[in-house]
């Protein structure tokens, strides 16, 4: 078996792995990138980019079919050609993947190794049955994959995950989506707007990424008004019947229903690809899921010479987070043992539904746990239903809740369902990262008429509720350090 000696070995050639490779190469020439499958990130192949292509088609169809309120009438029905929709999705998806593959092709051939890596020890990897890699430092960046109940495998090719959707040659007639989270909502609403009959089922009432009960309830009602969504479903049976899937469930009126759909789309989450790495052979500390625990500022695990980044870690599974984590992990692997704290940005997440969903900074749950015990935070809000620019565009659905700290007036976080929430979230994330107060945010310019004026309304509401000054700060110190 071939033997290879390197200073840094990186397992995984996705967003985190490529970022780690580039960062490590700035510190040492001895870097090896190991990939067990195809190069081309989750985002480009089966994630954020192909899903946005499907969303764009759905938005075009929805807009064309809803011009009448503006006094604009389109003669005849809007016709959706499913084959052409999916052809564009695949073509553009392949184009995005091509850019990633081109970047990988530019990497020196001696720096790349194809095969599945398994830990033999803290400093040794076996690659398939052909190579032993002796590495002084290792970065785990193996990404994630869809997760769903194993019993669903009995559905055969009638079970699909988001990875499969983007290879469809045509749109199906009907789909049952399980999981009204980020992936389920984006794909489910898009398919509905492209003429596919959609049933969406969830568990425990969770909708989207929200933790704020008020914002989540608004989102649930909004999507339920457009297509069938039961966020706390009672599904009695799922069974393949010929070329369809038969689902027996109790509907929201308490009546048993039996429905045949063409596919079951599992959008019930993703799991880190760490279960076939041979981690049992090394003394890594892991969380309850078996995912290695890492310092979020250095990406160092409990084994000092091993780092982890991206979806494989126990942290936030988003592309920009994966890139940041990969850069930190790769750089520290390159300079180990002289590791450094890396730049971690304020949290920001967006869901590209209509209306869009977004979260910034601390979530409502986090704020409540940290500041809620002694009432040391306040909430300001705005409804977009009567917000000027939103009504002009007939995009007037949404709710924004902002959280601020008593005493200091510091902006803590936000949860949003509303028009162009992706852009509002960026403004708020910049303010959060700069540790701005609510009053400082209100000093910023707001043009008229824009959707951002809704943010100002929420800021004013929050500012009026906050109790500022040293007395309140002293009271809030009773909550503990950091409050």
UniProtKB/TrEMBL annotation:
Presence of keyword Coiled coil: no
InterPro entries in the record: FAD/NAD-bd_sf, FAD/NAD-binding_dom, FAD/NAD-linked_Rdtase_dimer_sf, Mn/Fe_SOD_N_sf, Pyr_nuc-diS_OxRdtase, Pyr_nucl-diS_OxRdtase_dimer
Cited SUPFAM superfamilies: FAD/NAD(P)-binding domain, FAD/NAD-linked reductases, dimerisation (C-terminal) domain
Gene Ontology MF annotations: dihydrolipoyl dehydrogenase (NADH) activity
The EC number(s) this enzyme carries: 1.8.1.4
EC main group: oxidoreductase
Domain Pyridine nucleotide-disulphide oxidoreductase dimerisation positions: 349-458
Cofactor: FAD
Keywords from the UniProt entry: FAD, Flavoprotein, Oxidoreductase
Domain FAD/NAD(P)-binding: 7-326
Coiled coil start-end: none
Similarity comment: Belongs to the class-I pyridine nucleotide-disulfide oxidoreductase family.
Protein name (database record): Dihydrolipoyl dehydrogenase
């Amino acid at each position: 078996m071939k033997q290879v000696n390197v200073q840094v070995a990186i397992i995984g050639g996705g967003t985190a792995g490529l970022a780690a490779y580039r960062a490590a190469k700035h510190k040492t020439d001895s870097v090896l990138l190991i990939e067990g499958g195809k190069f081309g990130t989750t985002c480009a192949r089966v994630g954020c980019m192909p899903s946005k292509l499907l969303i764009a088609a759905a938005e075009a169809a929805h807009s064309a079919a809803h011009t009448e309120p503006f006094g604009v009438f389109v003669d005849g029905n809007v016709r959706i050609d499913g084959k052409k929709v999916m052809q564009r999705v695949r073509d553009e998806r392949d184009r995005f993947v091509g850019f990633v593959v081109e970047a990988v092709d530019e990497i020196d051939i001696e720096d790349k190794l194809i095969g599945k890596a398994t830990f033999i020890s803290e400093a040794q990897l076996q690659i398939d049955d052909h190579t032993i890699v002796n590495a002084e430092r290792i970065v785990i960046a193996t990404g994630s994959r869809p997760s769903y109940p194993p019993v669903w495998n009995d559905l055969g090719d009638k079970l699909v995950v988001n990875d499969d959707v983007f290879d469809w040659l045509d749109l199906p007639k009907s789909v049952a989506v399980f999981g009204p989270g980020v992936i389920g909502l984006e794909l489910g609403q898009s398919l509905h707007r492209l003429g596919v009959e959609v049933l969406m089922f969830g568990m425990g009432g969770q909708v989207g990424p929200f933790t704020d009960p008020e914002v989540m309830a608004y989102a649930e009602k909004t999507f339920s008004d457009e297509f069938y969504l039961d966020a706390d479903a009672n599904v009695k049976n799922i069974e393949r019947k010929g070329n369809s899937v038969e689902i027996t469930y109790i509907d929201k009126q308490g009546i048993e229903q039996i429905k045949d759909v063409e596919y079951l789309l599992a959008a019930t989450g993703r799991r880190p690809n760490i279960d076939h790495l041979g981690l049992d052979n090394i003394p890594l500390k892991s969380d309850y899921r078996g995912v290695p625990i890492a310092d979020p500022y250095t990406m160092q695990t409990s084994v000092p010479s091993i780092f982890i980044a991206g979806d494989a870690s126990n942290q936030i599974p988003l592309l920009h987070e994966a890139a940041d984590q990969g850069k930190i992990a790769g750089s520290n692997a390159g300079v180990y043992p002289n590791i450094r704290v890396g730049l971690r940005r304020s949290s920001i997440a967006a869901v590209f539904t209509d209306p869009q969903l977004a979260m910034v900074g601390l979530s409502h749950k986090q704020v409540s746990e940290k500041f809620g015990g002694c009432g040391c935070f306040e909430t300001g809000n705005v409804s977009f239903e009567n917000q000027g620019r939103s009504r002009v565009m007939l995009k007037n659905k949404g709710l924004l809740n902002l959280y601020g700290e008593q005493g200091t007036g510091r902006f803590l976080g936000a949860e949003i369902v509303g028009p162009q929430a992706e852009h509002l979230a960026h403004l708020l994330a910049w303010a959060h990262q700069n540790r701005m107060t609510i009053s400082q945010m209100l000093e910023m310019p707001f043009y008229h008429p824009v959707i951002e004026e809704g943010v100002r309304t929420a800021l004013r509401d929050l500012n009026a509720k906050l109790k500022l000054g040293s007395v309140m700060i002293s009271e809030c110190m009773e909550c503990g350090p950091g409050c």
